[in-house]
């Protein structure tokens, strides 16, 4: 978190982490598509020379609070390829929360576990306390053959403290729910640490509402809580 009282700005950093091709970039692309253009930045993708290996993606979402603070939420991905561990470590620096994107297929279990251990190692390298930087787990690709059953996903949920969400990111299923969970976790941790509600008057309700009121929640679990804006001129 970066909090600048003089300029009245707050920046929150969220990192999407996980194996290559697990759906990290797809998550950001779907968020970008569903977010109003006037509150989102450009989806920036930095690639290697072969144009295939992603270094990272960056999607900024921003709004102003009732107290006049400008809030920017920066969403990053990390490269999944094994050779880019140093880049993953750099991108993870200063993260306020992490969305771990796992592949639901059974044959991906070993790779998921390997990257989970890699996340824990890189958090330690960056002096990020796992008790202070919340992690949300998304099990993506729920539409593919040989995926873990809902019961197996539920068992994973029971074993740890992290929220666990099923997703089919390419269809937008579970994407906004994951974003909501990771932003809610980030806010609660930051509020406990820096007193966001007390010191700058930013409540959890305002923080989440200001993001999701500008996101098309149609067809998601968030639709009732954050109804989509009606088109201009609609009755």
Description:
The protein contains 7 helices and 8 strands; from the N terminus they run ββαβββαβαβαβααα. With 235 residues, it is α/β, with parallel strands linked by helices. The protein has a single domain (2-212), classed as P-loop containing nucleotide triphosphate hydrolases (Rossmann fold). Strands 1, 2, 3, 4, 5, 6, 7 and 8 form an 8-stranded mixed sheet that branches. Helix 5 runs antiparallel to helix 7. The N and C termini lie far apart (41 Å).
Summarize the SSE layout with pairings.
Elements: E1 2-4, E2 9-17, H1 24-34, E3 44-47, E4 54-64, E5 70-77, H2 85-92, E6 97-103, H3 109-125, E7 135-140, H4 150-159, E8 164-166, H5 175-194, H6 196-200, H7 204-212
Parallel strand pairs: 2-5, 2-6, 6-7, 7-8
Antiparallel strand pairs: 1-2, 3-4, 4-5
Percentage of helical residues?
A: 25-40%
Q: Please indicate the percent range of residues in DSSP E strands (runs of 2 or more).
A: 15-25%
The ordered H/E elements are EEHEEEHEHEHEHHH
Quaternary assembly: single chain
Mean pLDDT: 90
Number of domain units:
1
Give the tags.
235 residues; alpha/beta; Rossmann fold; eight-stranded mixed β-sheet
Task: Compose a concise summary of this entry.
The chain has 235 residues and is an alpha/beta fold.
